[in-house]
Amino acid sequence: MIHKLVLILSAYVVSSAYAQSTQVVRWSVDGRHEAEFVSVGEQGVTLKLGSDDLPTIIPWYDLRELTNNQVITNDWKKINLDAWRAHARLNRGDYSGAARLYQQLSQIYLWKVGPESADVAVGLSRTTLDRGDRVDAVLPFLGWSVALGTSNYEDSSPVDGIDIQFGLLVDLPPIFVGDDFDIQLEPIPNGQAVSQRAKILHAIYKLAHDADSRTDEELRDDLVSINSQVQQQGRRDPGVIFTIEMLNAVHHPDLQKRNASRAALKRRVRTNPDSWIEVWARLGIGASLISEKDTKSNELGAIELIHIVVRLAHESPALALLSSQMVNEYLIKTNREQWGQSIMLQVKENSMNSDVINEKESTVHE
Fold first, then answer.
1. Mean pLDDT lowest for which of 163-177, 204-218, 326-340?
2. Statement: residue 69 has pLDDT above 80
3. Strand partners of residue 57
4. What is the pLDDT of residue 265?
5. Helix (H), strand (E) at residue 160
6. Cβ pair 108, 124 in contact under 8 A
7. Is the pLDDT of residue 278 over 90?
8. Cα separation of 198 and 37, whole Å?
9. What is the tens place of the pLDDT at every residue in 111-166?
10. CB-based contacts of 138: which residues, under 8 Å, 6+ apart?
11. CA 156 from centre of chain
C-alpha cells in the first residue's frame, strides 16, 4: 500500500493552466487569506499569496482549509490529515501519538527536499529521542538538513528542538552511552539531495559512536578525513565546529588535542551560561575527563556531569538523564552504585513531573 501511494504521489502533480482564485486558512496564521492556486504536490499546496509575485508552498501540516479544492484528491487529503495530526500531537507533547504518524510519513518524505519533508524529519528525530533512542534519531535529524535543499539552515524558519544558528538538534549531542552501542548507526543514503554538511555530521556521529572499536591510528585517520571535508565545505559552520570540539575532547587519541578541545568547551561554558550550549559543553568536558586514565580527572568529569543534573536539567531533561547515566556508570565502576542510582532516580522523577506539567499546559486540540 505504501509503495503504491509513493508511486501515486511521485507521478501525480497537478498544475493549473490558468490563475485560479482561492482562499486559504492555515494553522499557523490567523484568518482567511486570498490566494491564487498554482499547484499541488508531495510537499503541499503551492499558492501565490495576496500580492506576492513568487509562489509559496503551504506544507500539508499547516494547511487547514482551501476553497476550490477539487484538485486535492482523497490521497492528498489523507496526507494532509496525517501530517497535521502528527505536527499537532508533537507540539502538544504527545510524542507516542506523533511517532506512529511520523514513522508512516517518513516512508514518503525522508531524504527529500521541501517543507513537509523538513517537518517529518524533525518530528521523527524528536519522537525517536523521546523514547531514549539517540542512535536512530541521527538519520532523521540529518534528513532535516537535506530537506532544506540549497537553503542555509540559518535562513530557515524557527523549529522547535533545533537551534537555527547552529543547525543542531539540541537534545542530540555526539555522545553515546550504554545501550546506544547495541544499535548500529546506519549509513547515510546516497543521492544528489544529501548535502555535504549532512555527510560531515554523519561522519562525526558515526565516529563518536564507534570510537571505542577504533585503534588510535584509525581515529587519527578518521579525524583527518572529517577535517578535510570541513575545509572543502568552504564556509564556517558553527554547528559542525561545536560537534568536532566535542568529538576531539572525548575521543582524540592525543592528550594535547583533548586538552585544547576541553579548553574550547570551557570557553563556551563561560560565554553561554544557562543555555543548551553550556549543557553540551559541560557534557563534552565531563565525558572527556571521565574517560581519562587518572582518578583526579575522572572525579572532575563526574562533577561536570552532576553539575548538569543539579543546575541545568531545566534546559534539557533528556541531557540531564544522559549525564546521570554516565555518572551512574562511573560510580558503579568505583563501587558507589547507590549514589549513581539516587542521581538517576531524581532525574527521572523530575522528568516525569515536567511531562505532567507540559500536558496540562497544552492548548492544541484535534
1. 326-340
2. no
3. 46
4. 98
5. none
6. no
7. yes
8. 34
9. 999 999 999 999 999 999 999 999 999 999 999 989 988 677 666 678 889 999 99
10. 125, 172, 185, 202, 205
11. 14
How do 14-26 and 32-41 pair as beta strands? antiparallel
Cα–Cα nearest to 42, from 130, 105, 124, 135: 105
What band does 95 get if pLDDT is binned at 50, 70 and 90?
very high
Q: 9 near 75, Cβ under 8 Å?
A: yes
H or E element at residue 195: none
Quick one: cell of 114?
Answer: 521541501
CB atoms within 10 A of CB 28: 12
Phi, psi of 213 (to 5 degrees): -95, 0
Residues 83, 116 contacting (CB under 8 angstroms): yes
CA distance 156 to 136: 24
State how far the Cα of 144 lies from the Cα of 326, in Å rounded to an integer: 28
What confidence tens digit (pLDDT) does each residue in 160-189 have?
A: 899 999 999 999 999 999 999 999 999 998
Residue whose entry in the numeric block shows the C-alpha cell 507521478: 11
Instruction: State how far Cα 183 lies from the chain centre.
Output: 18
- C-alpha cell, 347: 532525574
Secondary structure, 3-state, 1-34: CHHHHHHHHHHCCEEEEEEEEEEEEECCCCCEEE
Cβ atoms 314, 339 nearer than 8 A: no
Phi and psi at residue 63, to the nearest 5°: -85, 115
Residues 6+ apart with CB under 8 A from 131: 95, 99
Q: Give CA torsion, residues 325, 327, 331, 334, to 10 deg.
A: 120
